[in-house]
Structure formats: structure tokens, C-alpha cells
Amino acid sequence: MSASVNAVETLGLTKHFGSFVAVDRVDFYIPRGEIFGLLGPNGAGKTTTIRMLCGLLKPSEGRATVLGHDVAREPEEIKRRIGYMSQKFALYNDLTALENIRFYAEVYGVARAERAERVADLIAMAGLEDHAGVLTRSLSGAWRQRLALACAIVHRPPMLFLDEATAGVDPVSRREFWDLIYSMAAEGTSVLATTHYMDEAEYCNTIGMMYQGQLIAVASPDTLKDKLPGMLLQIDCDQPAAAERLVDGLPGVIDAAVHGVWLHAMVRDAGVIASVRNAITGGGYPVRSIEETLPSLEDVFITMVAQRRGAEAAPDAGTGD
Ligand SMILES: Nc1ncnc2c1ncn2[C@@H]1O[C@H](COP(=O)(O)OP(=O)(O)O)[C@@H](O)[C@H]1O
Ligand SMILES: [Mg+2]
Question: From the CB of 166, is ligand 1 less than 6 Å away?
């Protein structure tokens, strides 16, 4: 075991299923005590990456260490030291919340002398005091998810993997859940989390954007936003979905996408605004305003994927216009 400062390190980490490449030469690291967010659409390879890091799936190529242990050679060492919470985390419906935590304390080998105090701490941390005696089957989704987190960390793992741990949970509960994760990280726990929710990415020190098995960008949320090419326009017009089709593909428009009641367009520079306005009004849709706006991580992701697709479609393109 090395005295690596990083909780996770991967080098060319790859997983094939037959001829299909689910994870494609992924390189990243997570310093101890940091939260790394893996973002990407369904099928991007996030869960497969996590399963390799948890020692549940052998890499096809490349290597990775978790807490200094090699995932291929020492999976058992890793399993004992990590917490892993997926959407399918197994809670026992016929046990109360308290009994579930006690059960996992036993499974994870928490010393008998420490169990009572540990369980009480977790009940308090998860805010489950009023639900401790409730049968798990009667708990709402948000409470079940807090309970699952308490169970997943009952052995105080220094490394926590969260795979869509907040899927299907309402925004307020998701925020509270992340406050818990945040305080754990502040006390030194390292976290790798996958999510579909872009707002959750803001809680992460570092974001990895995954697409078709590859990590297409790794950076802090702010850096990712700064790296966006050009400027982002927020367009208030009639029928934004129809306007999107008019704007997409115009010279200087990198990408356009409906964003709530607006159309968002990433453009090369301010010189493109006039042609965007003309295209929409020319199509018969009145434009009320076009303003520059700050990108969200969702905008970043959409733009990066669009650039990627553009590069794939025109691999031999020169420096462009
Ligand atoms: N055991 C498996 N056998 C074959 N294909 C798989 C297997 N597990 C995952 N895949 C495929 O690998 C790709 C990545 O899956 P996954 O890692 O679950 O993505 P994500 O978690 O980002 O949604 C998907 O196309 C999925 O169908
Ligand atoms: Mg997944």
C-alpha cells in the first residue's frame, strides 16, 4: 500500500463488454477530502467506472488505486474501506430505520463496544430521530435515502461512492442530503458522486464530464464555465423550440438549446447576435430580448457534447472560418 495523498487515481482505466467499450482510457484523481462529481448522460460509463473502483468489476485495461490499493489486485481491501451507495441500496423493509443501521454496523464489523454510540451518531447526523422506530417500508423516498446513507457510512469509510444517490428525490431533500455529504468531506471523507442533476455538480470540488465512455473534461465548476467558447445568449422569444431549429447551424452559432422558457444559444462572439435575431424574426417569431447570461453546468455540458459531435462529424476540418 502506497502513502498516496490521493484517495483515487486512475490511469487509462478501460472496460470492454465484448467489443463494446463502456469506459475508455479514463484518467483522473481525487485528492483526499475532496468531492469529485462524475456527470454524463445515461450510458456514459459512470456506473461501470464506479464498479471498477469499488473492486466489483475487473478493468479490461489500465489501472486504478483507491486509498492506495490496486483495484485489480486488492479488491477485498478496498471493499472493506469504502462506502458505496447506489440507487438500489438494499434496505430491509421489515426492519425499522434503527434496526437497519444496527444491521449494517454488524455486517461492516463495527466493534460491539462502539456500536451503540455510532448508531446514535448516525441517527442524529441523518436527522432520523423521529423516524428511528418506523418500519423502513413506511418511510418516504427522501427518508429512505438518508437512512441508506447512514447505513453506507456506518463503518466510517474514508472513501464514499455515491451512484445517483439522490435520483428521484425532491430538490429540498437533495440539498439537505448534500449538506450532509459536504460536512463529511469537511471532516476528511473523499467522495465520488455521479448524478443527473446539474445543480448538484455545484457542490463538487472537481467535475468530470463523461460521454460515450470518455472523460471529455475534468475541472472545477468555475473553470469549466470559464472554458466555454464564446458567449451564451438568453433569448426571450415566441416558440423557443421552433426558434432553436432556425438558430442551430447558423454561422458562428456553436449550439442552441431550449432552457426553460428561453432559448439559450452559445455563439462565437457578439457579432453573431444580429444574425440570430434576424433568423428568429425572419421565421415569424417575435424576439422580445437577447441578453448575455452566465452559463450553468448544463450549458457547459451541452456545449461540450456539441463540440465533440462537431469534431467527430468533421475530423479533417482545418482551422475553420
Ligand atoms: N454487464 C454489462 N454488459 C454489457 N454492457 C454493459 C454492462 N454494463 C454496462 N453496459 C453498457 O455500458 C454502457 C455504460 O453503462 P453505465 O456504466 O451503466 O453508464 P451510466 O452509469 O453512465 O449510465 C452502457 O451502454 C451499458 O449498456
Ligand atoms: Mg449509472
Answer: no
Cβ–ligand 1 contact at 259 (below 6 Å)? no
Q: Residues 182-238: pLDDT tens digits?
A: 988 999 999 999 987 878 888 999 999 999 999 999 999 999 888 887 899 999 999
How large is the average pLDDT for residues 144-170? Answer: 91
- Compute the distance from residue 86 Cα to the ligand 2 centre, in Å: 9
Model confidence at 316: pLDDT above 90: no
Residue nearest to atom 9 of ligand 1 (CA): 48
pLDDT at 321: 41
Q: Where are the alpha helices (DSSP H) in the chain?
A: 46-53, 75-81, 97-107, 112-125, 141-152, 171-186, 198-201, 221-226, 240-247, 273-282, 297-313
Domains and CATH numbers, the chain: 6-221 (3.40.50.300), 229-294 (3.30.70.100)
CA of 16 to the centre of ligand 1 (A): 10
**Residues 6+ positions from 39 with CB-CB distance below 8 Å:** 194, 195, 198, 201, 207, 208, 209, 210, 297, 301
Give the chain's mean pLDDT. 91
